[in-house]
Write a structure and sequence with these properties.
The strands form 2 sheets. The protein has an 8-stranded mixed β-sheet. An 8-stranded parallel β-sheet has the order 15-14-13-12-11-10-9-16. The chain is built from 23 helices and 16 strands. It has helices spanning 37-62, 64-77, 80-91, 96-114, 116-119, 122-137, 161-164, 185-193, 228-247, 272-277, 301-314, 352-357, 359-372, 390-402, 415-419, 421-425, 435-442, 461-471, 488-497, 509-517, 521-532, 537-546, 550-554, and strands at 2-4, 6-9, 12-20, 152-156, 172-177, 197-199, 212-216, 221-224, 262-266, 283-287, 320-323, 380-384, 408-412, 430-433, 478-480, 502-504. It is 45% helix and 13% strand. The protein folds into 3 domains: 2-19 and 143-227, Phosphohistidine domain (Glucose Oxidase, domain 1); 37-137, PtsI, HPr-binding domain (Enzyme I, Chain A, domain 2, Orthogonal Bundle); 258-554, Alpha-Beta Barrel (TIM Barrel). It is an alpha/beta fold. 53% of the residues are buried.
């Protein structure tokens, strides 16, 4: 039996399974306390500080990237806004454990709604929450063995940094999680440790503890009870893949020299180093939500300017595409007044619609971008999320132009925009396709509902048709910034459809670079045509891979 997921740290690892189960119970709803409110508040604050200190100490012991990761978690525990929320609940009679649970829940929901990079921080929030509740209730915090007779494969729903930073290759052979993504801390720390890792592996926690598995962090597979031949073949394939990825350097291009700039999706300055190390030629999606989430007041223009300029300075030769604030409805911001309950938030006041509703926030962000791009305006590009009509695009271009922002584009995330991309192209300087939301709206399938995840498959021919319509023949460059571009096979198909640039998580760049370099533009176009000629996502994937023989040779 083989479980498939997403490979986020290449290499081969094998060993017995150790399943990590999280068992800090949720404090009962309606729980109250005895005594004075101030004493209960002090108890909550002390627990949060204890957790923060323990995380910092663990990070210092681990060093390297782990130190920074755990320092960031410690800041969550010390967040003033969180303390205010806990205190407010305690004032109403809520016991400290429940107050902590509910206060962290608000931040968790914001991250889940944000999705992408921000969504992969959820496990960090949950870990700090559970550790604090454990301190308050005297419940033991689950951990992982730091010694073992032989290296084991650590399997979990998801892994918090504090669970893994003190582990070594002598103890752990690989990581496997049911959740997470390429930018989750499981992925980041696994790569830093040089350990194979597979995330989004459904059903992994159902594996019997102690059963032997083979983990391929390049292919994203977990083989249960592998034969000796399977292990030997996997090791040979992994070595060949590593050599191929190391050999693929320089700007993105096809085998016959067609240029395809490969860019990184980032959430802020903290993500820049990983992008640079992976050979990103610039930034194709700078998600600015990270500056606004978890704040009682909006960031100042100066704070925004510095965050934007830091990324521009990191790519002196490449472009940086900044998406303006994508908030509202399912991503509420604490400092904005509530707009009322919406029956379907995914179809509500969000993205550019929210941006227009709060002109003071819009003005500050656009001015901060203009200030950051002073002297670098040839490389700074600004785009709006959730654009549906030409009127919206025209309004956004005008507002940017007034602020001195010259290169202005819009995202293609709704079918209406994809189908009328030619009209939009007459108004803006570039287009960028967000495949995650485009799939959500094309299939009427909320991306937050796990039961509908099959309808989010970017290989579906209907979605490929919409991407082809968005790219069109309008003469305006159209890139793809959804994580669909992180699949080497799909990246070739996207280029075959006419995508001008591809943007993805930094970890995916080497494999995509190698995949493109192994095929001509004509092969990419043939793969795209073959995929669109199918009727299912699986059929499209198989047909495209059959037209891209270089992927198998590379072990991708």
């Amino acid at each position: 039996m083989t479980i498939s997921g997403v490979g986020v740290s290449p290499g081969i690892g094998q060993g017995p399974v150790y399943v990590l189960t999280v068992s800090v119970p949720e404090p009962p709803e309606g729980a109250t306390y005895e005594g004075e409110a101030d004493q209960e508040k002090a108890r909550a604050h002390a627990a949060l500080e204890q957790v923060a200190g323990e995380l910092e100490a663990r990070g210092v012991r681990a060093g390297g990237e782990a130190k920074d990761v755990l320092a960031a978690q410690a800041l969550m525990a010390r967040d003033p806004g969180l303390a205010i929320g806990v205190d407010a609940l305690i004032e109403t009679g809520t016991a400290a454990p429940r107050a902590v649970y509910e206060s962290f829940g608000k931040y968790r929901d914001l991250l889940v709604a944000a999705g992408g990079y921000m969504g992969q921080r959820v496990v960090d929030v949950e870990d700090v929450r559970d550790r604090t509740i454990a301190v308050l209730t005297g419940h033991p915090v689950p951990g992982v063995p730091t010694t073992a007779a032989e290296p084991y494969v650590l399997v979990a729903r998801d892994l918090a940094p504090a669970d893994t930073v003190l582990l070594t290759r002598d103890v752990v052979a690989a990581f496997v999680t049911e959740q997470g993504g390429p930018t989750s801390h499981t992925a980041i720390l696994a790569r830093a440790m040089g350990l194979p890792a597979v995330v989004a592996a459904r059903g992994a926690t159902a594996l019997r503890p102690g059963v032997r598995v083979l983990v391929d962090g390049g292919l994203g597979t977990v083989t249960v009870e592998p034969s000796e031949q399977q292990v030997a073949d996997a090791r040979r394939l992994s070595a060949a893949r590593a050599r191929a990825l190391d050999a693929a350097t320089g700007p993105g291009r096809t085998a016959d020299g067609h240029p395809v700039p490969l860019l990184a999706n980032i959430g802020g300055p903290a993500d820049v180093q990983a992008a640079v190390d992976s050979g990103a030629e610039g930034v194709g999606l700078y998600r600015t939500e990270f500056l606004f989430l978890d704040r009682a007041s909006p960031p100042t223009r100066e704070q925004q300017r510095d965050a934007y300029r830091a990324v521009l300075e990191a790519f002196p030769q490449g472009k940086v595409v900044v998406r303006t604030l994508d908030a509202g409805a399912d991503k509420p911001l604490a400092f904005l007044p509530a707009t009322g309950r919406e029956p379907n938030p995914a179809l509500g006041l969000r993205g550019l619609r929210m941006f227009r509703a709060f002109p003071e926030v819009m003005t500050d962000q656009l001015q901060a971008l203009a200030d950051a791009g002073a002297g670098m305006s040839d490389r700074l590009q600004v785009m709006a999320p959730m654009v549906s009509t030409v009127d919206e695009a025209t309004w956004f271009v005008h507002e940017c132009t007034v602020k001195g922002l010259g290169s202005v584009g819009v995202m293609i995330e709704v079918p209406a925009a994809a189908l009328r991309s030619k009209d939009l192209a007459a108004t803006v300087g570039f287009l960028s396709i967000g495949t995650n939301d485009l799939a959500q709206y094309a299939f009427a399938a909320d991306r937050q509902v796990g039961a509908l995840s099959a309808l989010q498959d970017p290989w579906h021919p209907a979605l490929l048709d919409l991407i082809a319509a968005a790219v069109g023949d309008h003469g305006v460059p159209c890139g793809v910034c959804g994580e669909a571009a992180a699949d080497p096979a799909l990246a070739c198909v996207l280029v075959g459809l006419g995508a001008a640039t591809l943007s993805m998580s930094p970890a995916a760049l080497p494999a995509v670079r190698a995949g493109l370099a192994a095929h001509s533009l004509a092969q990419c176009r043939r793969a795209a045509a073959m995929a669109r000629g199918q009727v299912t996502a699986a059929g499209a994937r198989n047909a495209a891979r059959a037209a891209l023989p270089g992927l198998a040779d590379l072990g991708l």
